[in-house]
Request: fold
Amino acid sequence: MKTQTIEQLSGLPSLILSNVGAVLVQEYAKFSNSNFLKSYGWDVASPIWLYSLVNYVNNRTGKHLGIFGKASISFAVPAILEVFQKMGVYPGAYDTKDFLAYGAGVLVAAGIDKIVSSKSGLENKLAQENQ
Reply:
C-alpha cells in the first residue's frame, strides 16, 4: 500500500474549505438583498474554489505548477465560460464585470497560496534542519 505524503495531501483542507465557502456564498446570495453579492459573489468564489482544486490535483499528482500556472487555469476556465455566454453557447448573462470578479477571486486565492506555501516551506526547512 502506497502511503501519501504530506505534500500530496496539503491541498485537501483548502479544497474542503473552499467548497464549503463557495456553497455558503451561493446560499447566502439567494437570501441576501445585496445585488452585488447576487451578481458577483459566485464570480469571486468560483475561481477560489477552482484554484484550490487545481492546487489539490497539482499536489496529488506531484506536478509543479507555480502560483502563476494555477492562477492562469483558475482564471481561464470561468473566462472561457463567460465568452461562451456571449456567443450563446453556454447559458447565462454575459457581463464584462465578471472578468474583474474572476480576477479578484484568483488574486485572493493566489495570495492565500503564497502565504500558506511560504509558511509551510519555512516549517519544512526548519524540520529538516532539526533532524
